[in-house]
Write a structure and sequence with these properties.
Elements lengths: L1 H21 L13 H6 L22 E5 H7 L4 H5 L5 E3 L28 E2 L7 E5 L2 E2 L23 E7 L4 H4 L6 E7 L5 E11 L6 E12 L4 E12 L2 E2 L29 E4 L2 E5 L14 E3 L2 H4 L8 E3 L2 E13 L4 E20 L1 E4 L38 E7 L5 E23 L2 E24 L1 H8 L28 H7 E26 L2 E19 L2 H4 L11 E22 L2 E15 L3 E15 L2 E12 L3 H5 L3 E6 L16 H9 L15 E7 L7 E12 L10 E18 L3 H11 L2 H5 L1 E3 L5 E7 L1 E18 L6 E18 L9 E2 L3 E2 L10 E11 L2 E10 L2 E3 L5 E2 L2 E10 L8 E8 L28 E8 L2
């Protein structure tokens, strides 16, 4: 089925390309470029992100940041998302530094993740609250093979397809619909090009790993006489991995540690931990070639000396490989009507890797499946204890808690993802006159699909394991009795033989799918003239169908896997929407009113999933003089519940949090009488025998909720742009822009934070919180309920600033300075009043689990000198300090420096360019993070440790 789908995609692409080329006469290769943008620019007005009405881009009433091809090339990065995540207004997001996807479960917000994917998150409001558009139209969401994501995977968009990226830093649901809460990222693709453009880049880290190759080529053919324009291209990117073992910061679970005595290591060890018959034991050494003997081969287990360091067996940078192609075709059907089509295809193969499977068996294992009920029969030939180790599932008293064994013989856990993304857009656009006023119209259809498959090698079939550990008389046929008691040595021998391994293991195969159908129709133009100009109007209609599914391996659905459990999900929704926008010029060329205008828009939506909703926005622009523009606005925004949030089945997320009820160091059971009483009431033994070490992971079980209501937001913006005319004698461009924003989000879809649930149960005996915590008979946490709810309110407030300077010609070139800055005044999460929980203030802190830093200040500044023949640039990136929420640790301020030089020989007509660059030229290490899930630093905010150098050869740029 999948192969047929891909063949159909490629066949459609080939037919469209041949058809497009066949429409061109031979002389088109030297024709003058034409396209929607260049044609529209002839009268000075274009469609700028943030409005549906054509206007001058110099007079936008909303804050828009533009990232062009030059800016992208200057970063040395090969992913659109990596470029956007460097914007000061961006919070980061999922990227290829994220290795946890697949081995600690999906995020607790009900959406899925997939390593190799990449997202952008504006204003720290999560990627699902940033709308991604391609040429003003929606693009299909990513697929995870680990859930149902609610955002676009930007790695599906090749960089050589992009002309520029416009980032609207304001809520815009009245114009674009759901998800445009924090802002809109509009990716404008190349509509016209003449001839060949190509580039090849190789980069690597100073340590000799993380090699990255990127090859891109595009070709454009224009024919002004026939009105035909074609741009097509292909790309290939390969990124090799970086192991946690190869960086000092990530070699132990705790920053700066040199042994497991510092905490954070795993109790599932190669030699095993056996909590049986009232004691906790481990092997003195692996027992190979014979059966282990109790008590001779065993000793008491100590977490400080016997736990196992899993940290060196992960990726810091995940390997991935992407290839694909695109086609942009435009045919003028008449002087006023155009037909357009755009095809995009991308294939991604990516890998994550984790340490050997931690196999937990027994009533306190916390798997939530058959593994928790396994009894190990006394007739198992490898059972050294002489009695059946009973889980209690059959009614007999339980006499063991857990057996924990690191499954070394099965090799490391490897998750590979293969994802195919296809998008097809077709449309008609044109113009006509009504009197002296010009009107523009367009109709568009979009189809997109994302098809993902994930393979996890080496999972354990719980049913086969139960049989292999049970009565030997029942282990017949292909069953092989299993030796869980002999231990193993990493890189050496183990007690689990290949025959045992073959019987109990299986390859887990998961898949997910997303589909988008979208139809839009728009009309814009000028109604009539006022003394200050023409009144502009835009109206439109949109119908959208979205469907998604997630299908774990049947053995996982049956509860027979040994890794993170998850459940299938499928569903969809459709929406019909109408919108209208009005722009009214009030004054022009008057004293103190060089320009004054008002803009407003309204959208009404009718969703099959929850009903109808109406949002509106109003903004104003005032130029008291020609050099100064002041603006302000108010917008209401909407985010409909995503398919994953509505229909996701129960799935576990392994969060790095501490249980206050433990008697181990860091717990409050032994030191706080109130906590002791409340924990005992919650199922913790009064004897204090529950002593699980802090710093480990606890299972949080999230689940979708079909009763969810949409999130709503109110956004206020104010700002100004000063572009002094008096500076034109010594500058080509000089401007200063400052913007203020305030966003109030209500009904935020989330689950109650597991840390808050545990704290309120332990310290306040809150019955709702305690009911959400499931414990086993020994006090171990079996799971924490995290069902999705319309839970919190979020309030955020901040400032953005941009300074731009470009000099006149200096020694054959120009000097430029660009500074982008963001200051986070406030980011507060307000739990509902019935929780009785305090306001969570995040500005200036690191959240941890899932990782996210909220620095107060971020600044990017680029100084460059550019000529046709050569150039040099330096970019500085500053991130202010953040405090971890444990109240102990601080992550210091960080400054990264990136340098780049290029040469473009004039004797080659400046067609060839060689670029050399180094990112993180000062070799700045990321600040250590004690509360993060990842490898002791926050990958959403900070660079991978090490200098990254690259060389790029390009043609036609």
């Amino acid at each position: 089925m999948r192969d047929n789908t891909i063949r159909n995609i490629l066949g459609t692409t080939a037919i469209a390309l041949v058809t497009a080329l066949g429409a061109l006469p031979a002389q088109a290769q030297t024709a003058t470029p034409v396209g929607a943008d260049t044609a529209a620019a002839a009268d000075g007005d274009i469609v700028v992100t943030g409005s549906r009405i054509r206007r001058s881009p110099l007079d936008s009433d909303k804050p828009v940041v533009t990232v062009d091809q030059t800016s992208i090339a200057r970063t040395g990065l090969t992913s659109v998302a990596d470029v956007l995540q460097r914007l000061p207004s961006a919070a980061g997001g999922l990227n290829t530094k994220t290795n946890n996807a697949g081995n600690i479960g999906g995020p607790p917000d009900g959406t899925g993740v997939s390593s190799g994917s990449a997202e952008v998150d504006l204003r720290y409001l999560a990627a699902k609250r940033t709308l991604i558009l391609v040429d003003g139209l929606r693009f299909v969401n990513g697929s995870a093979a680990g859930g149902i994501p609610a955002s676009v995977d930007l790695n599906t968009l090749p960089t050589n397809m992009i002309e520029r990226i416009e980032v609207l830093q304001s809520g815009a649901s009245p114009l674009y619909g759901s998800d445009a809460v924090a802002g809109v990222v509009n990716i404008i693709t190349k509509q016209s090009q003449v001839g060949l453009k190509a580039s090849g880049q190789f980069g690597t880290y100073r340590q000799g790993d993380g090699h990255t190759q990127n090859y891109e080529a595009s070709y454009g053919i224009q024919n002004k006489a026939s009105g035909t324009s074609v741009v097509f291209g292909g790309n290939y990117t390969k990124q090799e991995g970086v192991s946690t073992a190869n960086r000092a910061i990530s070699q132990w679970p705790t920053p700066g540690a040199t042994s497991c005595a510092a905490g954070g290591c795993s109790s599932a060890t190669p030699s095993g931990r056996y909590d049986v018959l009232g004691g906790s034991y481990t092997l003195n050494a692996p027992v190979i070639g014979r059966n282990s003997v109790f008590p001779t081969d065993f000793r008491r287990y100590s977490s400080s000396t016997d736990s196992w360091n899993f940290a060196p067996y992960n990726y810091l940078l995940t390997p991935s490989e992407r290839y694909g192609g695109f086609l942009n075709f435009k045919q003028a059907l008449s002087d006023t009507i155009n037909f357009r089509t755009k095809l995009v295809y991308t294939h991604r193969h990516s890998t994550t890797e984790a340490a050997f499977l931690p196999l937990f068996v027994g009533p306190d294992a916390g798997n939530g499946n058959l593994l928790d009920t396994i009894s190990i029969d006394r007739t198992n030939p490898y059972n050294p204890f002489g009695v059946t180790l009973s889980s209690g599932a059959d009614g007999t008293p339980a006499n063991y808690s857990t057996i924990r064994r690191r499954f070394v013989e099965g090799g490391q856990r490897v998750f590979t993802q293969d994802v195919d993304t296809f998008s097809a857009t077709m449309g008609l656009d044109g113009s006509f006159h009504v009197g002296d006023h010009k009107w523009y119209w367009d109709v568009n259809g979009v189809y997109g699909l994302n098809d993902a498959h994930q393979l996890f090698t080496g999972n354990v079939n719980a049913a086969n394991l139960a049989r292999a550990l049970g009565p030997v008389a029942n282990c017949t046929g292909d069953c092989v009795p299993f030796n869980i008691f002999g231990g193993a040595t990493v890189g050496g021998a183990g007690s689990i033989t290949p025959a045992m391994l073959k019987y109990v293991t299986f390859d887990e195969r998961d898949k997910s799918f997303q589909q988008l159908w979208d139809f839009t129709a728009n009309l814009s133009g000028e109604l009539f003239d006022l003394p200050a100009g023409a009144v502009g109007v835009a109206i439109g209609y949109e119908h959208r169908d979205q469907y998604a599914s997630y299908d774990p391996d049947p053995l996982i659905v049956a509860g027979l896997g040994a890794d993170v459990p998850t459940s299938p999900a499928r569903g969809g929704f459709n929406v019909d929407e109408i919108y209208g926008e009005l722009r009214v010029p009030i004054l022009k060329d008057q004293p103190f009113f060089n320009r004054l205008e008002f803009d407003g828009a309204v959208r009404h939506s009718n969703y099959s999933s929850f009903g109808s909703n109406t949002t509106f926005t109003a903004s104003g622009l005032w130029k008291p003089v020609a050099d100064l523009l002041l603006r302000g606005g108010y917008a209401e925004s909407l985010r409909a519940p995503s398919i994953g949030e509505l229909y996701a089945g129960p799935s576990r997320f392994d969060a790095t949090i501490n249980d206050p009820c433990t008697s181990a160091a860091g717990g409050a059971f032994q030191t706080n009488a109130t906590v002791r009483a409340n924990c005992i009431a919650n199922g913790v033994p009064a004897s204090g025998s529950y002593a699980e070490p802090t710093g480990g992971q606890l299972g949080v079980f999230s689940q979708g909720n079909t009763a969810l209501r949409p999130e709503t937001a109110k956004t206020w913006t104010a700002g100004g742009v000063y572009s002094p005319s008096w500076a034109r004698g010594f500058s080509r461009a000089l401007s200063l822009e400052v913007n203020y924003y305030k966003i109030d989000l209500a009904n935020a879809i989330d689950s109650v934070p597991a840390t808050l649930t545990l704290t309120r149960c332990a310290f306040n005996a809150d019955p709702v919180s305690c009911a959400a915590v499931r414990r086993t008979g020994s006090g171990q946490i079996a799971g924490i309920n995290g069902r999705l709810l319309n839970l919190n309110a979020i309030q955020t407030e901040g400032l953005d600033g941009t300074f731009l300077f470009r000099s006149p010609t200096v020694r054959g070139g120009t000097i430029g300075l660009t500074v982008n800055a963001a200051y986070l005044i406030k980011y507060n999460i307000l739990p509902p009043a019935d929780l009785g929980a305090p306001v969570q203030e995040y500005a200036g802190t690191e959240r941890g689990s899932p990782d996210q830093a909220y620095p107060r200040g971020k600044v990017n500044a680029t100084l460059d000198w550019s000529t046709r023949n050569y150039g040099v640039s330096f970019t500085g990136r500053y991130i202010s300090k953040v405090d971890e929420r444990d109240g102990i640790h601080t992550m210091g301020a960080t400054f990264y420096g990136d340098a780049q030089v290029y040469v473009s020989p004039s004797w080659m007509d400046n067609r060839w360019r060689l670029t050399l660059g180094v990112n993180n030229i000062f070799n700045k290490a990321p600040p250590q993070c004690f509360t993060c899930d990842s490898a002791n630093f926050d990958p959403t905010t900070y660079d991978l440790p090490g200098q990254f150098g690259y060389a790029r050869l390009s043609y036609g740029f």
